[in-house]
Design goal:
Layout lengths: L6 H4 L4 H10 L11 H6 L6 H12 L6 H8 L6 H5 L6 H15 L4 H14 L3 H12 L6 H6 L16 E5 L5 H4 L1 H13 L2 E4 L9 H5 L3 H20 L4 E4 L2 H8 L1 H4 L7 H10 E3 H6 L14 E4 L3 H6 L5 H8 L3 E2 L15 H4 L1 H15 L6 E4 L2 H8 L5 E4 L5
Parallel strand pairs: 1-2, 1-3, 3-4, 5-6, 5-7, 7-8
Helix pairs in contact: 2-7, 4-7
The structure holds iron/sulfur cluster (SF4) (2 copies).
The site of one iron/sulfur cluster (SF4) has 14 residues, from helix 4.
Length: 400
């Protein structure tokens, strides 16, 4: 695509990236075929090609307007379009840049900014988040039905065993996962310990920064990212072999620290190091698949929901199915597995109507073979799919 950037965009630090990405797009529209919002809304402007076109017009000098921002906000950043695109257009980077620049020119309404700030601070608040969830769990019977479904039942925590081993990895606890699904990381620690790998989980409020990024608070996100790197750094200097993340939504952010901090004189090298050490849990576990046995696996039929962050973001599609099948589980069919479930970070809170439609479609797609259990790899998808679903939804590590 030919581009003629407006002078104000040419002066921005993003000018080169914008030109490179726009030039790759040949406007073929293949990406629309796999875009969940285009499928639901049938509007070209709510598909990737249309969003790219609107951003191009803005970069070339058209003033930003609320309607344009609305089309960009409805994007799930699921990146299915990137997997489909034959030209390798880095759509998600363009969207991030587009929203950042547009929001400077066209600040969001005060109420919208307050709502976004409140969501991310609540998620990151630690004790306040845990206290509210525990209250919700204890008095669930008093809550209105809509709210009751969004508070998962309290999970009794498993015993944790973590010995000292020569092989050591860092693990990110995450913001909401320890409260809502503590057994994900405990199961990961227990299995890695059995495989001769010690897990170090530094304490304190460590966040990957994704929630703040999703709610248009890049400065807040950067502070979180730097704090997390600082907390990890002594262990990295001590020689941990990897940074393991059990939630793919957080993992895709951690893997991108090298790019995110590339222009930061103090953190650029550290960001690169963290990105190079990043591993999804499945990558660590599958290297030991011959040591893993689950005695009653053959009795269970499992439908695997591979999060967008895993298949489109990290390029690790089918890896969980392969691992669970190797352990003996019977794997069920999942229709249209490339489509997002609607959770998408904070999307389900910011765009609830679309998120619920996608959730409904995904639960139907996961149910074709009537599985006994649904396994996924991201806390957001796990909670979103568990709402209104009669089949239990777990992190896949709990099955091993
Ligand atoms: S993003 Fe890729 S698939 Fe979509 S219109 Fe551009 S070149 Fe075609
Ligand atoms: S990231 Fe997902 S929702 Fe957004 S344009 Fe691409 S396919 Fe559509």
């Amino acid at each position: 695509m030919q581009t003629r950037l407006a002078p104000r965009i040419k002066q921005s630090r993003h000018a080169e990236a914008i030109e490179t990405i726009l030039r790759k797009c040949v406007h073929c529209g293949f990406c629309n075929a796999t875009c969940p919002t285009y499928q639901l809304l049938g509007d070209e402007l709510d598909g990737p090609r249309g969003r790219i076109y609107q951003m191009k017009q803005y970069f070339e000098g058209e003033p930003a307007n609320a309607e344009m921002l609305g089309h960009l906000d409805r994007c799930l950043t699921c990146r299915a379009c990137e997997t489909t695109c034959p030209s390798g257009v880095h759509y998600s980077q363009l969207l991030e840049i587009g929203k950042e620049l547009i929001e400077v020119e066209l600040p969001r309404a005060r109420l919208d900014r307050l709502r976004r700030a409140a969501i991310v601070r609540f998620i990151n608040s630690g004790w306040l988040f845990t206290a509210c969830i525990r209250l919700g769990q204890a008095f669930a019977w008093m809550l209105p039905a809509a709210l009751r479904h969004s508070v998962p039942a309290r999970q009794p925590a498993l015993a944790r065993s973590n010995g000292s081993h020569a092989r050591k990895v860092l693990m990110l606890a995450g913001c909401v996962q320890p409260t809502l699904a503590p057994n994900t990381n405990i199961s990961a620690v227990n299995l890695l310990n059995q495989l001769g790998i010690e897990v170090i989980e530094p304490t304190g409020k460590l966040c990957c920064g994704a929630a703040a990024m999703h709610t248009s608070e890049p400065d807040y996100a950067l502070r979180q990212v730097k704090h997390t790197i600082d907390s990890w750094w002594p262990y990295i200097e001590d020689g941990v072999e990897a940074i393991v993340v059990t939630a793919t939504g957080c993992g895709v952010s951690v893997r991108d620290y090298g790019n995110l901090l590339a222009d930061d004189p103090e953190y650029a090298q550290k960001g690169k190091t963290v990105s190079s050490l990043y591993r999804d849990l499945v990558e660590v576990v599958e290297a030991h698949s011959d040591q893993i046995e689950v005695s009653d696996a053959a009795d269970k039929r499992v439908a695997v929901h591979t999060p967008c962050t895993m298949q489109h973001g990290l390029g690790l599609g089918n890896r969980v199915e392969r691992l669970l099948a190797g352990a003996g589980y019977r794997i069920c069919r999942v229709e249209e597995a490339h489509l997002c479930c609607g959770s998408a970070g904070t999307y389900s809170m910011l765009q609830p109507a679309l998120a619920m439609q996608l959730q409904h479609n995904k639960i139907r797609a996961l149910s074709v073979d009537q599985p006994d259990i649904v396994a996924t790899a991201n806390i957001g998808c796990q909670l979103h799919l568990a709402q209104g679903n009669s089949t239990a939804v777990v992190h896949w590590i709990e099955l091993l």
